[in-house]
Write a structure and sequence with these properties.
By secondary structure, this protein is mainly beta. Helices cover 4% and strands 46% of the residues. It is built from three helices and 30 strands. The strands form eight sheets. A four-stranded antiparallel beta sheet has the order 1-30-29-28, with no helix packed on it. A four-stranded antiparallel beta sheet has the order 2-3-4-5, with no helix packed on it. Strand 14 and strand 15 form a beta hairpin. It is globular, with a radius of gyration of 20 Å.
């Protein structure tokens, strides 16, 4: 295990979701505020926290020694949440949206001057069971500062706009089983993962309720629990499965994962690419561990017209088109079969109880667990 000390804050609530607040400046991803959502309690909560930066810690420590307590997060504000928080996303720098085990979705506003959270909009029980009662809204994803897409145990997808009090569109039969994860691929495209082991891509601009693409795990129908999109190459997604397997998919041409990697000994609850250095990926699991997957040493220069060509990969990596035609740059995640021995995997946390959630920005990894604690781990050198 990597010996970087973790900053620990015991918060007296099991943490289901943790998210960094986005920086309002387009020139920096630095931020010192994050949000948490709780579960398995009579009164759920959404909380905002402040985490002192490493630079501020160094200023405070005159003798140059390291004391993790100097960077312990402090509570900024909190608000009661009905039901478990099943997902949480910042839709803008001062608005955060949560989904609930009751089927309700709520938009909160962070009032900076008073340091309070206020309930701005609620969409009550937009996910329902066969009897018409609210059932869990399991996941959500956001686009711009006004669009929210949710999915749930009812297999439905709801498209919300913050200016409207009812869903602007509902795909009633998006799935016959629970949808466990959802994220935007493009402006009008979302991808879902479900309990039957399938990925489905939906075009929200089409009237049809059918998916435009369907992918599946080969073999048994192992539930997929989470999905993450590569931040610059949107045809690449990573999924975490109930059996602990991490899979990387190329949505341009494969019906099955490019590379399934045996990872954790129990369900992977979240997978996250680093937003600006996506050769680094993080997973957390029911087995109480967080892993850092580093593919930066895997060769990414591919000769010929194999998996690396097409799809605009030259531009997505920030490389100029050379005109050579037979050379292109692809993500190392699509070349793991040939370079698996170079994939560097490190354990960042190893706890007794499940770690449910992770988020990464700049050089700080946040983790939330059933041990009623929040962890912040410094990951130097991956800005």
């Amino acid at each position: 295990m990597d010996d970087s000390p973790a900053i620990v804050k015991f918060v007296s609530q099991k943490i289901s979701k943790i998210r960094w607040k986005p920086n309002q400046s387009q020139y920096s991803q630095e931020t010192d505020v994050f949000a948490t959502g709780s579960w398995d309690d009579e009164d759920g909560k959404v909380c905002l926290w402040n985490l002192p930066s490493a630079e501020q810690r160094d200023i405070d420590m005159d003798d140059g020694s390291y004391d993790p307590a100097m960077r312990e997060p402090s509570l900024l504000c909190e608000i009661q949440h009905t039901g478990d928080v099943t997902d949480l996303e910042f839709i803008s720098a001062d608005h955060i949206v949560s989904s609930s085990s009751t089927g309700t979705v709520t938009l909160y506003k962070h009032h900076l001057q008073s340091q309070t959270l206020g309930d701005s909009v609620s969409w009550k029980e937009i996910h329902k069971d066969a009897g018409g009662k609210g059932c869990p809204c399991t996941c959500l994803t956001t686009q711009r500062d006004d669009m929210i897409v949710t999915a749930g145990e009812d297999g439905c997808i709801n498209v919300l706009n913050v200016a409207h009090r009812k869903p602007v569109r509902t795909i009633d039969k998006a799935n016959s089983c629970t949808i466990n994860g959802i994220t935007f691929l493009k402006q009008q495209e979302v991808i879902t993962v479900d309990s039957s082991g399938q990925l489905k891509v939906f075009d929200l601009g089409h009237r049809s309720c059918d998916p435009v693409k369907t992918f599946a795990l080969s073999g048994e129908q192992t539930p997929l629990q989470c999905v993450a999109r590569h931040p610059t190459q949107h045809h690449i997604v990573a999924t975490g499965a109930y059996d602990g397997v991490l899979s990387v998919w190329d949505l341009r041409q494969e019906k099955f994962p490019v590379t399934p990697l045996e990872a954790h000994s129990a369900a992977i609850w979240e997978v996250k690419f680093h937003p600006t250095n996506p050769d680094h990926l993080f997973t957390c699991s029911e087995d109480g561990s967080v892993w850092h997957w580093n593919a930066s040493s895997v060769a990414s220069l591919v000769t010929g017209t194999g998996a690396g060509s097409g799809g605009g990969s030259l531009f997505s990596q920030g490389m100029p088109a050379s005109g050579a035609g037979n050379v292109s740059i692809t993500s190392p995640w699509l070349t793991l079969e040939s370079g698996r021995q170079k994939l560097d995997v490190k354990s960042k946390l190893n706890l007794t109880l499940p770690i449910n959630t992770v988020d990464i920005i700049s050089e700080v990894l946040l983790c939330g667990s059933d041990e009623e604690a929040v962890y912040a781990v410094d990951i130097p050198g991956i800005r």
